[in-house]
Amino acid sequence: MFSIPLTDDAHLFPLEVWHAEEFFAHIERGREYIGRFVPFPDRSKDLESARALLATNAHQAADDGRRLYGIRLDGTLVGGVLFPSFDAAGGNAEIGCWLEPAGVGRGLVTTACGVLLDWAFDVRGIHRVEWHAASGNTRSIAAARRLGMTRDGVLRQNHLHRGVLQDTEVWAVLADEWRAHRAAS
To answer: How far is Cα 55 from Cα 57, in angstroms, rounded to an integer?
Structure first.
């Protein structure tokens, strides 16, 4: 297995089926915090459902689609980043993130997403990457801004999460914009 250092004490790695126990323990620690905007906790109610979620992602990654990566801080899984959609043929992808409280405020999401954006644009030839965030998820929107994304618009009341219709902000960055942002950073 490989991992990519994000900081001296944090690493990015592919989150796979055999990480189910670690993933479930992480979800349990951050269930309420993560679940405010991210569906993983609601889809991972026990170890078997957590394993099934990771297995589904593994199958989609094998088909050159969705990908899921974990972030470990001091050896403990505290969150991750993902491509909820990845269409290499069409040149489009969506990127996202989640963290439990122990990982918040350290720049881990920004750094990890930078690694994924570099790979998507420079290796895979993706042209556009979107970021979808509930309008109330100010931390996620701040991450999109730090990544040099532009707000394309708001999909009003388009997403039902825990019984509430939420607005979704759509942010995006194009390949040339990412390269300019990266060079300026």
So the answer is: 5
Q: Is 29 helix (H, G, I), strand (E, B) or coil?
A: helix
Q: What is the pLDDT of residues 51-101, one digit of tens each?
A: 999 999 999 999 999 999 999 999 999 999 999 999 999 999 999 999 999
- C-alpha–C-alpha distance, residues 101 and 79, integer Å: 9
Confidence of residue 161 (pLDDT cuts 50, 70, 90): confident
Decide: 83 and 131 in contact? Cβ < 8 Å. Answer: no
Phi, psi (5° rounding) for residue 164?
-120, 130
Q: What angle do CA 60, 99, 78 make, to 5 degrees?
A: 90
Q: What is the pLDDT of residue 1?
A: 58
Pairing of β 92-99 and β 128-134: parallel
> 173 has which bridge partners?
129
